[in-house]
Design brief:
Blueprint (H helix, E strand, L loop, with lengths): L1 H15 L2 H18 L25 E2 L7 E7 L2 E6 L5 E4 L4 E6 L1 H14 L7 E7 L10 H9 L3 E5 L8 H13 L4 E9 L1 H12 L11 E7 L8 H7 L8 H6 L3 H4 L10 E6 L29 E5 L10 H13 L13
Parallel strand pairs: 6-7, 6-8, 8-9, 9-10, 10-11
Antiparallel strand pairs: 1-5, 2-3, 3-4, 4-5
Helix pairs in contact: 5-6
Amino acid sequence: MYFRVRYAQFVTLFAMLSRRTLTFSVVWTVVAVSCFKARCDESARSDESGQNQPSRSWNFPSKTGGGAQFWTDERFFHGWRIQRNVVTGHFRLLDDRDVRQAWGSLAHCVDELDAKRQSEKLPPMSGRAVVLLHGLGRTRKSMLKMADYLKQGGYEVFSVSYASTRGSHDDHAAALAKIIAKLEGIEEINFVAHSMGNTVLRRYLAANAPAGQLPDRRIARIVMLAPPNQGATHVELLALDRAGNIAGKAAKELGPQWETFRHKMATPSCPFGILAGDGGDSDNPLIEGADDLVIPVETTKLSGARDFRVVPNVHTFLMNDAAVQRMTLNFLKHGFFETEAKRQPIR
């Protein structure tokens, strides 16, 4: 018991150390705002119509310097992304190597992306896609191994980055809606979400279609990884809050505001499966019942799931588990984790 308590404390301490990353992000953003404010004021916030769009801004192509909790993706084209800064409101265009190719207004970044498509002869998008959603306080890098595995399985993968600690579920769902609406040429859309990414997805489904319907006819299947489908307790939020007790509005909706917020989410009307983690001897002694150090197994469940499994792994690394990746791909292709006969639906 002593070892389990100390282990849980170590995991919590490790999560809190991410405060250094947040500090770097804040400093980087302040510097960026100071440097770009003269060019990124009202004109940089112009809408998609392009009104008040600035002239073509100078840009020195460079790798992004952090600040993941201040940028939210709003458009994809293959590996290219247009992001919005949630503090300044300006946009930037990143290529498939995360090199900034343009910045300014949304319309300006769209124009630059169109120009790159022409000059680099980028092919149109097509086929089946998977949209990946990371959890609270994490980044798209946490889904990198899952993304690579699904690409090898034949899917076009869009790994979404969103400022999870800097907005509500409504904010994140609205950005996701913009991404889905602009996946031009894609014929089938699937989702794989980790942790809070699942409640963001469920909010997107509820906000963009009547109950029992889907916002987009192309949506096919969903795999939920360690989803907080029944909300989160204070202990769970502490573990989820990798930035150090400043997890933001969305975290409050999962915790103290849960009884109000839970009615704003939809149960997917397409086939969905749930993979929960069980840390075994590494269970969090502060959480009752089997858990993955963060989420109790019981609270991952959601009626209507076509298949359900518990795998021996912890919350943070669930998406990197080889068995989880294999079962995820199998569900996306066939609608079950192993075989039809072995399905474990939740009624």
